[in-house]
Amino acid sequence: MSGIDAEPLLATAYGLLLLASAYGLDVLARHSHRRADRYGTGGFRFHPGLDAWECPEGEYLHLHEHDRERRLLRYRARPLVCNACPAKPECTDSDEGREIVRSLEEWPRSAAGSFHRVISLSLVGLAALIAVVVLVRHHDPAEAALLSAVVLSATFVARRLARELRQAPSEPRALA
Question: Given strand 72-76, what is the order of strands in its sheet?
């Protein structure tokens, strides 16, 4: 490696750091989204055959609204039952009954998912751009191999991240 200039080495290291950051951001954002979904439905069970959620006290939250524009489903318990429930203070402060809102969008096509994916793709694009610019300036075969590896890796990662964004909107999915 004595024949490789510092600039291609630094560009390769920085490009790989950007790729790892993009991947890490995507993984953390997806995890955070799943965790938020679980928090909103904690203790509740979805019954696909009934299209209803069951609360820990045995009350069912039935489909109350299907917001086609926002691609959301709203499930709500009966206010009369919820307001008389001894667990109400820990469950909801609404006098209209407990509500669970579920998105019909898969994570990458949700607003938060799209936002995080675009940021991740921007980092991948920056990694590729830096590698290409340095590759134009340095033509040594070893340097070209390092920088080409970054460009190829960025292409692979970008295709993987962009694939889910390009897919057509999903059909309603099981919301368990």
Answer: 45-47, 52-54, 60-67, 72-76, 99-103
